[in-house]
Amino acid sequence: MNRFDSFLKAPTWFSGLLLAILVAACSQVGSDQNAGQTAALSSEPPRGTEQSFAVLGGSTVTNTGTSVITGNLGVNPGTAVTGFPPGIVTGVTHAADAESLQAQTDTTVMYDNVAGQACTSDLTGQDLGGKSLVPGVYCFSSSAGLTGQLTLDAAGVADAVWVFQTASTLTTASNSSVLLINGANPCNVFWKVGSSATLGTNSAFVGTLLALTSITLTTGANVSGRVLARNGAVTLDSNTITVPVCDVPVSSIPPTLDKSFSPGTINPGGVSTLTITLGNANDTPANLAGPLIDALPSGLVVVPGSVSTTCIETPRPLSGWFIVDTASVGLTAEGLIPANGSCTVTAEVTAAAAGTYVNTLPAGALQTDHGNNAGPAVATLTVL
C-alpha cells in the first residue's frame, strides 16, 4: 500500500484535517502574495511646483502663535495671509501670483491622481490608530480618524508608497502620531481628503495632505510634509510644517558666504561688530548640513553676550543654538538659510593689542543641501 492509498483509507476526520491544513497554507501564500501586490498597486503621483510649498491655501492662510513654515507659503485664488509675524516662513510667500496659481494647478493634478488610484484595502469605519500598514491604497467611503499611533512599515522596500483616500473628512486626535519604520519615507505618503482635515493638538502627522476644502492645524500640531488646501482656508496655531528634504528640487546654485567688521578700525579695547552673511539664491531654503564655525585670529575675542543670529533653527526657533565662545562664533547643523534670501550671525569683538587681524572662513566652510560656498569669506580688522 503506497502513501496515497493510505491517505485515501484514513479516517474521514483525519483526511479533513489534512485538507484544512493544506487550504490554510495555500491561503497564507495567497495572503503574502496579495501583500506584495498591495505595495505594487500604490503609485507615486506626479509632482510639480507644489513640492516647494509647505502650506498652500485656496481662500486664506491664517496663523496664531509662533508657527514655523519650512518651505514656501501660498494662497490662490484668495489673497489673504495673516499672522506672519509672529509666524515664520523660511521660504517665499506667494499671494495670488503666478507661482501660487501654478502650485494650485499642480496640486489639483496630484489630488486627482491620488483620488483615482484603485483601492486595495477598504478601512471604512475603522480607526487608523494602532494599525501597522504596508504600502497600499487605503480607502474610506466616508470619514477617517486617527487616535493613537499609526505605523507605516516599508519592510525595506525602496520607494514604498502609501495612499489614503477619504470621501469626506480626516480628523486626528490630540497627541496622535504617524510613525515611519523600515525605510518608509515621508515623501511617499499621500492623503486625499474629500472635504476638510483637522489635525489634533500636539499631534505629529506625516505626508502630503491634499484637501478639497480646508485644513486646520490645532495648537502644537506638527507636519513632516505639506498641507495643501484646494478651495478653502488653511488655519494654523503654533505649528511646525517642514517640507521633507527629499522632495525639495535639487538646485545647482551653491550658497554664498561673506563677512565684514564695522567699524573696520578701532583702538585697543574698542569694539567692532563682526557680521557673517549666509546667502541662498535658490527657491527653497538651504539647510545646513554641518556646523559653521568661525575661529577668530589670536588676540581677537568675542564680547560676552553679544552673539546673535537671524538664521532659523529647525524645527522651531530656540535660544542658544548658535555657538558662543570667546575665540569663535558660528551655527550648529540645525539651521537654515531662507529661500532667495540671506541670514546673518553677528558678534561684537575686541582686541587688547594693536595689529591687523585677518579673519577668514575658507571655501567649503558653509555646508548645505544646496552645496557649499565656492570661495572664502575674508574680513580685516585694524587695531591702532
Describe the structure.
The protein is mainly β and 384 residues long. The protein folds into two domains: 49-247, no CATH class; 256-383, Immunoglobulin-like (Sandwich), CATH 2.60.40. It contains three helices and 38 strands. Strands 1, 3, 4, 6, 7, 8, 10, 13, 16, 18, 20 and 22 form a twelve-stranded parallel β-sheet that branches. Strand 36 and strand 37 form a beta hairpin. The protein is elongated, with a radius of gyration of 28 Å. The protein starts with a helix and ends with a strand. Mean pLDDT is 84; it is low at 1-40 and 247-251.
Which key features would you list for this structure?
elongated, Immunoglobulin-like, seven-stranded parallel sheet, disordered N terminus, mainly beta, 3 helices, 384 residues, 38 strands, 2 domains
Short note summarizing the structure:
It is built from three helices and 38 strands. It is mainly β and 384 residues long.
Return the structural class: mainly beta
Strand content: 35-45%
Radius of gyration computed on alpha carbons:
28 Å
Helix content: 10-25%
Number of domains: 2
Determine the number of helices (DSSP H or I, runs of at least 4 residues): 3
Low-confidence blocks of residues: 1-40, 247-251
What composes the largest sheet? 12 strands, parallel
Mean pLDDT: 84
The CA-CA distance between the termini, in Å, is: 112 Å
Map the helices and strands.
Blueprint: H1 3-9, H2 12-41, E1 53-57, E2 60-64, E3 68-70, E4 72-75, E5 80-82, E6 88-89, E7 93-95, H3 98-116, E8 121-122, E9 132-133, E10 136-140, E11 144-146, E12 149-153, E13 162-166, E14 170-172, E15 177-181, E16 189-193, E17 197-199, E18 204-211, E19 215-217, E20 222-229, E21 234-237, E22 240-242, E23 256-262, E24 265-266, E25 272-280, E26 286-287, E27 292-295, E28 300-302, E29 308-309, E30 312-313, E31 322-325, E32 328-331, E33 335-337, E34 341-351, E35 355-361, E36 367-368, E37 371-372, E38 377-383
Parallel strand pairs: 1-4, 1-20, 2-5, 2-21, 3-6, 3-22, 4-7, 8-10, 9-12, 10-13, 11-14, 12-15, 13-16, 14-17, 16-18, 17-19, 18-20, 19-21, 20-22, 24-38
Antiparallel strand pairs: 23-25, 25-34, 26-33, 27-32, 28-34, 29-34, 30-33, 31-32, 35-38, 36-37
